[in-house]
Fold this sequence. Notes:
By secondary structure, this protein is an all-alpha fold. Helices cover 72% and strands 0% of the residues. It contains 13 helices and no strands.
Amino acid sequence: MSSTTLDPTPSRRGAHAGPDVRRALSGNGTSTGPGPRFLRVLHSEFIKFRTLLSTLILLGATIAVIVGVGALAAWGIGQALQASGANPQRAAALAAQGDIAASAPSAGISFAQLILGSLAVLIVSSEFTTGMARSTFTAVPKRIPAFLAKLLVVVVSAFLVTALSLWLAGLVAVPIFDQYGHTLDISSGHYLRTLLINSVYVAAVAAIGMALGALIRNSAGGIMSLVGIFFVLPIALQIIQGDFVKELRKFIPDNTLPPMTAAEHVTDTLEAWQAGLVLGAWVLIPVLLAAVLLKKRDV
């Protein structure tokens, strides 16, 4: 009889028959460590984002609101410009406001920031409500890559949808102003700069909303916190009088947009670069806090 000896060392062919699993797990520059690569995490989060019916409804609502409010603003400004022809004082008051026609397409930004900010809250808070966060963080144990992927998808989507909506609102506003003998140049440098800054601002609000959703982990609580920061707080600071409160108003996120979009610096407001830094701080602080607590807290 002959015996068969099992060689514990794999053959040369067997060693190279398939991919090296350990090497694949260690990854390259885009690896998250244990778990899938960041690009796969990003693709997964994008699939979840675009396949939700509520997401598509809110994105469509954003486009409709910006275009609709922009058309109404163009009609109202056109009426005001036409009526000012017979009233020199009113004409001077409108002239002091600069090119108010250029601001018509962006009149619906305050509504857009609420819609897309609420959507950002729901994207992350709903996972904790439904328990999907357990599956997400089981697949991505380090958690931070999943959070960054969600943040990237939400911010880029908010920026693109806002930019598209403002461009469509400008196209709608042009013929409305033409009826009143006023021209709106949507190809001018000032208009394109305003479109870009407004889009970045709404994307920043979406980032804040997502951070609130991750911190509070409750959809209603996150949305109400967002409403409190961007709607209730400005009204409260307008009611309260005092020099300190007057200075404090400049540093709330809602008041950082006008200095950045104004053609010239407006008195009693921050410089454009200062407003940009303040808005950046409002985004960076809650996002970093949410990322840290996401690592430390249980799902």
